[in-house]
Protein 1
Amino acid sequence: MKSAKIVGLGKYLPSKRLTNFDLEKKVDTSDEWIRARTGIKERRIIEDGQGASYLAYKSSVIALKRAGMKAKDLDLIIVATITPDTQFPSTACYLQNYLKAAKACCFDVSAACAGFVYALVTAWQFIRGGLYKNVLVVGSEVLSSVTDWQDRSTCILFGDGAGAAILTPTSKNGFLSAYLGGDGSQSDVLILPGGGSRLPISKEVIDKRLHYIKMRGNELFRLAVRIMVQAAKKSLTKAKLKIEDVNLLVPHQANERIIKAVAKRLNIPLDKVYLNISRYGNMSSASSAVALCEAWEDKKISKGDIVVFDAFGGGLVWGSCIIKWI
Ligand code: ACO
């Protein structure tokens, strides 16, 4: 059966750094509290006037170059984002135009922090089904645009960035399994309430700061640990693999304590778990994409390795996917 493989990876992080010490000057918090509760030291912030498509473009150019592919050869572009440039057109369309990838069809995926995993699995299925060959998958976020910089319980967490992957068909077994899930009954645990069709932007929405992320962090913490453990176990079972077979776990980077709790419950040593949250914070769909790219750049992934993605986010949505690096 036809499968897919990743042939190029790229990432782009804006150069502007926002440290915990900078945040101490904005809200009642401390570097010590943020590091102890989240593991985050700093995050990146986009320049004014740029959007998710710009970050996506910068990461895609690198991924294309590493894949030895021209943008004109792309058949499909999928951008995972919850911070699109505009409600419509999609960020994928803007990216297509930046890249001059005229042949590619394009759409966005909205699955919060699980977005990159959802998009990867979608790309794999398009390739497996034979409809498209060369697929660009990007996780790109400008969470600074929806962060309430007066709310210390959320503004310490989020950052901006993008990661890209190029997928092509292979006769070998590149993608081994996937497990995606959702629970819309818990949508209010993490939500951007204002600015959509239910509550369009208005003076009242802005006065009540409803155009910013609202989160019940404590609840989410417990849900994230439980669900990420379940998701990884389900995808491993589907692939007929054991945790000992895994060479690298690439978890969503929401909180270092969540990742360590998941690793402990899965019984996987921390040296097999990729962590970069200290440098970037939570970049939603971009987190897994950037983590994968950095793990590869750091030579933590070799041919034949089993790599497990495990992500969870607002929706609720979650996803785990297992690939063999070929
Ligand atoms: N600095 C100092 N004190 C703070 C801060 C801060 N930045 N934020 C909250 N506190 C205080 C609270 O007011 C509270 O004080 P109190 O005890 O006097 O009431 C105390 O610290 C403890 O607050 P908690 O909310 O219980 O802190 P917790 O240990 O849960 O950490 C955190 C909060 C970091 C948000 C954590 O709950 C978390 O990471 N949750 C999960 C986030 C997540 O996974 N999001 C999902 C993915 S994101 C996506 O999908 C886009």
Protein 2
Amino acid sequence: MIYLDSNATTRIDPEVVDAMLPFLTEHYANPSSGYKAGRLVKRAVTGARQQVANLLNAEPDEIIFTGCGTESNNAVIQSLWHTPPAGRQVISARSEHSAVIEPLKPWQQDGGRVTWLDVDRHGRIDLAQLESALDDGPTALVTLMWANNETGVLQSIPDIVRLAHDRGVPVHTDAVQACGKLPIDVRQCPVDYLSLSGHKFHAPKGVGALFASRRARLRPWLLGGGQEGGHRSGTENVAGVVALGRAAELMASHLRQGDMARIEALRDRFETGLTRTFPNAEIHAAGAPRLPTTCSVQLPGLDAAGLLILLDQRGVCASAGSACHSAAVHPSHVLEAMGYDAEHAARTLRFSFSRFNTAPEIDQALDHLAAAATIMRREQSRLTS
Ligand code: PLP
């Protein structure tokens, strides 16, 4: 398998597996138990909280473990909804992940106002439009993603924080795709809330975290035994939390060692090969700051769904620019927000890379893509002749 879909999920790092396994075997005590075995497990949870805090330059008491990035996003939005006065606006963007768009729908249905910022051809918001939205009435929250999952494009979070904080408005960022791939320092870029998800940086699925700064308001969303500072009761997913901590530590160390430059070189090698084979290929957000791990590309005249099937047959995993929901293919709302039509989206593929990819894999994937395109073109001309 050549796995080029790391924005969907990442391979679990073997070192992460090693760290978590003892908590699925011998260290199974409840971290809230007062005896020695429980205290050992509690120490592991405390250590993991420190490791995640270190990745962000946060304090450990600003980290709340959650089940996923979706939960972290929902928790912030619902918390702000319940913070009086009611009816205020939230500012977000049309290109956000559904884990932000969907929880904002009830906000709108229940009488709040959601201002959806437009994005340009690269998928970036216009800071002047943000400014005028902020000046257009009391605002409870600005929620904008750090990096887009489909194109990798980055929003300018430091500028967004500055504009919002000048007006006393808190900022949440969905950093699920950015975390572990870019240096994030919540002291230098003082967001109020930040969501992250373990399975996007080599930890398993089913564990995430929410950073909530000490000054941020946050309403508990799971009531019970008072775990996670009372915000998210429930016995901790200890093995998952330990894995998240170790993955955060590893990502911090790989970032320091310049790993992203190596991944970016692989991505660039892929894009160079791609444009050589497909001279009319359009790489989205190529002229904007974007994640070093992502290539979203439109291949004129080639149906992405068909190409993905042919790639799958050759062991290459990638994804399309349109998402399948209950058998109906919807054009990507992200590409739509960027001004592209449904046909363009249907010709878009996303390849996303991680440090487990190698240069020979990139070259093989390019060969497979060229072969798949040849088959598709041959089939298309047979059908039209
Ligand atoms: N936000 C972004 C930008 C994502 O890419 C994803 C997952 O694809 C999520 C949120 C949801 O994260 P999770 O799968 O951990 O719920």
